[in-house]
Amino acid sequence: MRVGVIGAGVAGLSTAKVLQQAGHEVIVYDKAPDVGGVWSATRRYPGLTTQSPKAQYSLSDFPMPRAYPQWPTGAQVQEYLASYAAHFGLTLRLGTEVTAAEPDPGGGWTLTTAAGAELFDKLVVANGIFCEPLVPAYPGRAEFEAAGGRVLAGTALHDVEAAAGRHVLVVGYGKSACDVTVPLSEVAASTDVIARHLLWKVPRKVGGVLNFKLLLLTRMGEALFKYRVLRGVEKFLHGPGKGLRGSMLNSIGTVSVRQFGLRRLDLVPPGRMEDIVRGAIGLATEGFFEAVTAGRITVRKNRTIARLAAGVAELDDGTRLPADLIVCATGFTQGLPFFPAELTGRILDERGNFQLYRQIRPTDVPDLYFNGYNSSFFSPLNAEMAAVWIAADLAGAVALPPPAEMRERITEQLAFMDAATDTHHSRGGKIIPFSLHNVDEVLADLGLNISARVRAGHWLNPVDPAAYRRITPTVLSRLPAPPSSRPQSPRAASTR
Fold first, then answer.
1. Where are the beta strands (DSSP E) in 200-333?
2. When you count CB atoms within 10 A of the terminal residue's CB, does the N or C end of the chain come out lower?
3. Do residues 407 and 458 both lie within one domain?
4. HSE-CB for 474 with a 13 A CA cutoff
5. Domain carrying residue 479
6. Whole-structure pTM value
7. Cross-strand pairs, 103
8. Would the pLDDT of 20 be above 90?
């Protein structure tokens, strides 16, 4: 088949690689001039690093270079993904925006770009849940900018010199907000963080010794959060062992408060560490709390910007702060701008949530898949296993339930995630903290998984994506071989 992929991030590239190995012709489109998605140079802000260590952020059969640090920079991740694309000989159309994607009446898709239209048998949307930055609409912005002020999304800030000698406000308190704040504070005249809510921050090394991946990037770490279906040890942890489970999670919070001096800084988040999944779990940025302690960064907790004026930002409590540059690390929207409105309405529910079976397949739109709508602690691994699932489904090797049953399961999963994350699941596109449950379910559909012994080892040791490196070749070896002698499909050369 001829498959079009929209998006050249981790999900798009891993999809292209797996489908190409399955014998399909795959073309990847991205409007950016380079691969990487969120790691593209067009979106990379100062201070950007991975949240997961490099071993856990690697694709199963392509480890990151040994020379990379434990938490690679944004530039290093982009270089890694470019090497991945080159190593596997992927066909890329970079700097090429898909302006329209429309289903053909007889099956397949027409993708339109500035260069014309092309036909494909199947389409994979991999533009990601972090595709468009969300910038608040501030009253007075026009006056603020007319006086020389700037309002930017975090992903639009690429050089710390933009903050040199200026009064900077960073809006947000997630990882990206804290990451960009540290380098800006080193050159700015003043740096304030406007935090609507305080979030729990996990130290990279708990107590300065224990790597956080030993606690949360294991199957045991995931089992501390109650999943929709409980099995084995999970039944104990959320039954007789509930007190032990709560103590294990909340002890991390206690250590974080002490390690970062949060009580002295008046920055202890509300609630308990075990509630972190209801908002967002953030890896603490190196140097952030130290800079707060030193006075280079001021956190304005429980505040928002009410309005802007020339050289000034007024907060919702009436505080007026000098401001020249406002950096908004305020989240993203999940958009499908290339689809007709009618089609988008068949993919989203009435609340705007993506209705995707296994986070991959819409039930009512044929020849269409999504990948990367399973954002997690192990995003590359989840994307790679979803790509294998897509390859199997293209070959008719996935035993799918009837459409009505798939819709029912999707509804149940969304309702569960609503409760588990207090609706903070990026419109159904984020599966944190249930990354490995998703992997297991996807592989169960294929009648396959890594060995029980290795999975048992992952209960106490960090999950190693390399343990899954044989999954792709094993699944592909079971699929029908592509017919090499069949005349080339007319779609393969269809361009108008």
1. 201-202, 205-206, 210-211, 282-283, 298-301, 305-309, 312-315, 320-322, 325-328, 332-333
2. C
3. yes
4. 11
5. 2-131+334-493
6. 0.93
7. 109
8. yes
Q: Which of 291, 314, 331 is the last residue of a domain?
A: 331
Q: How far apart are CA 435 and CA 380, in angstroms?
A: 11
Q: Are residues 81 and 156 in the same domain?
A: no
Do 317 and 341 share a domain, yes or no?
A: no
d(CA 31, CA 438): 29
pLDDT digits (tens, 9 = 90+) for 393-406: 999 999 999 999 99
Distance between CA atoms of residues 217 and 410, nearest Å: 26
**pLDDT for the residue 200:** 87
Q: Which of 331, 354, 373 is the last residue of a domain?
A: 331
* Contact by Cβ (8 Å): 52, 211: no
Residues 293 and 424 in one domain: no
305-327 mean pLDDT: 98
Helix or strand (DSSP H, E) at 216: helix 213-216
Q: How confident is the model at residue 496 (pLDDT cuts 50, 70, 90)?
A: very low
Give the total number of structural domains in the chain: 2
Using DSSP's 3-state secondary structure scheme, residue 489 falls into coil
Is residue 54 located within the same domain as residue 197?
Answer: no
CB 372 within 8 A of CB 9: yes
For 74, residues 6+ apart whose C-beta sits below 8 A from its C-beta are 39, 44, 45, 48, 49
Say which amino acid occupies 380.
P
The CATH number of whichever domain residue 295 belongs to comes to: 3.50.50.60
Q: Give the SS3 label for residue 175.
A: helix
Cβ neighbours, 10 Å, residue 444: 10
Q: Is 264 exposed, middle or buried (0-12, 13-18, 19+ CB in 10 A)?
A: exposed
**pLDDT, average across residues 200-226:** 84
pLDDT digits (tens, 9 = 90+) for 453-465: 999 999 999 999 9
Residues 348 and 436 in one domain: yes
Do β-strands 167-171 and 320-322 pair in parallel, antiparallel, or remain unpaired?
A: unpaired
The whole-angstrom separation of Cα 197 and Cα 176 is 15
- 457: tokens are 């080892």
Are 216 and 97 found together in one domain?
A: no
Q: Residue 291's pLDDT is what?
A: 97
| pLDDT exceeds 80 at position 493 | no
Q: Write the burial class of residue 477 (CB in 10 Å: 0-12 exposed, 13-18 middle, 19+ buried).
A: exposed
Are residues 439 and 376 located together in one domain of the fold?
yes
